[in-house]
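To assess whether the prediction recovers the assembly geometry, we first specified each molecular entity separately, as shown.
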Amino acid sequence: MCLSSSIRWVIGLGIVGFLGSPTPAFSDADLAAGKDAYEANCARCHGPTGAGDGPDAKRMFPKPRKLAEGIFKFRTTASGTPPTDEDLFRTLSTGLPGSRMPDFQRLSEETRRNLIAYVKSLSPIFKDQAPEPIDLGKDPGPKEASLAKGKEVYAQLGCASCHGTAGRGNGPSAPTLVDSWGSPIRAANLTQGWNYRAGSGVKEIVARMMAGIDGTPMPSYADALSSKEDAWHLAYYVHSLQETPHWNRTIEAVKAAGSLPADPEDPKWQEAPRTDLRLSSTVYQQGEIQPTSVNAIGVQAVYNEDAVLFRLTWQDPNESREDPPDAVRLFLLQDRRLKFQVGSLRSWPAGPDAPALDVCSWSAKQDSAREAEQMLESNDSEITSGAASSSRSQDSYADGVWTLLIKRPLKSFHPGGVTLSTKKPFLFGAVVFDGGNGERDRRRANSNWVDLVLK
Amino acid sequence: MNTSRKIMLGFLFIILGMGIANPAFAAGATVSGKVSFEGAAPSREKIKMAADPVCLGAHKDPVLSEDLVVNNGALQNVVVYMKDGLSGKTFPAPTTPVVIDQAGCQYHPHVFGIQVGQPLEIRNSDATLHNINAQPKLNKRFNIAQPTKGMKTTKTFDKVEIPVPFKCNVHPWMAAHAVVLDHPFFGVTGENGSFTLNGLPAGTYTVEAWHEKLGTQTAQVTVADGETKTVNFSFKAK
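The predicted structure of the complete assembly is given in tokenized form:
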């Protein structure tokens, strides 16, 4: 072993620094630097004094944290106590998926530490109370963890009241949940690991469960568990509920050998690759965002000489067949270049000069194919720039999931409509309305344009 | 005097003796009265408990909202307490806990007074999940889960605060309110709207009556040792 003395010195200093002050005290200089960084990076959402009232705050859901109130969601500390510096550092460094909080990796670690010092100066809670870190116990590892036991604990602890039996955020109490400021809040959809705010790993799940998520309905289960082992079994079970999303920019329609699949459960669907599309919304009322609830839709497609059949699945916490009903529209564009003329689906229906869009519509209100076609007519009369394509659909709703088949002829029935072929990619887009969330017209979740390829 | 009377008298002396030892139970002065509601009593809403079959199954009759309860003009669930007049005096926190029970998906009691440092025992008597989400502004907040029947958790408050709201997010109709004081001179009006604060040191006080929807009212009263005075409050619909 042959280390130069200077390297030895650096390593030694590192160890001393680590042992001596795992949470370093901040000097006034740090605070001043933190204040500058806060004003440059944080104030536009969290507000100049941390009141959560920055100029962009109204345009966000979930809302930016009111840092000055000292209620922090993602902690490893007892309910009601402030987070540790490391908890804050984690949020700042990794961001919060499913919210508008980005990761601040672009700032140096030193700047991030200074920011934390400043954020802590905004609320008296950091002076009045010390963080009370929770002992999370020991990870038994995936081999020792019992999913069966975890499932039992899930039932015992009443997780399903809000998160639903299958974890889709559709439990009986979910529709009435409000946060500590009285605003509606959703129970986490546990099947969407990609949307967990502060990490979808087993350890993070244990931390959320033991510490609770302050300011939200999620309580601390630290005293409710009969053992720490149970927390880990449960966390492994919750982790197992996560479904892997198939994000892709292309939907591959596969050619059916023989007839098209007869129903959504037809084994032929196993041959069709699934593409998941992220959905988002930017609809404002008096500057305030109108949140939509469906955040992704899965698309599969099978075609034959006459028609293409789409199988769509998406999660919606409740089945709404009336006023307004759950609904979906699929859009096709003949040419990829049209994307730039048409623009984002968010702005549809666009002005009178925009190219007509080829639309397939479905609404949960219809309950037979015959009515479906009538609905299509009436829906499309509302669309100034839309051209309807004939389609037939089958739908079913079970435990938070819609499954829908929409059939569309390859050939357009309308002048200016899209005729699909294997010759080139087409553009595909989807919008989803959650009627239970009051979504209609422009209030809806929109996908980006993606390619549709008939293989 | 027969034996049983002697025993009774003996007990009386013991009780008096305890009273002298503990200033809170000294003979002292008494302030009592009645809280009334002026005008037509609003009808109480029926609570919809259908979301949780355990809650629904716990009641034969419809459960009515508790945020404004008037019985023949008497206002229930008002906390009456000494607001001013006790400064400089300290009162040790009782070790006997105040118990709040979750039964039939309602809090029992719906409102209560508690002393700083006095244990609050939170019980779940329902076979369903409750979360107890306490949202004080001055005291330490907490939001804890009680998923099983028979579970008990003890909490304390370390600052005077009026009120500390409690809610259950699982059952959004569930609400309770605590009035946290640094002395034992408080009472909550029952069905007949009356309250009694006894064992008071002689002095001049500001008495306050707090109601969760109707706000507060105050009155001044001066009592001498051994004296009883009446203070009545009257609230109007807001």
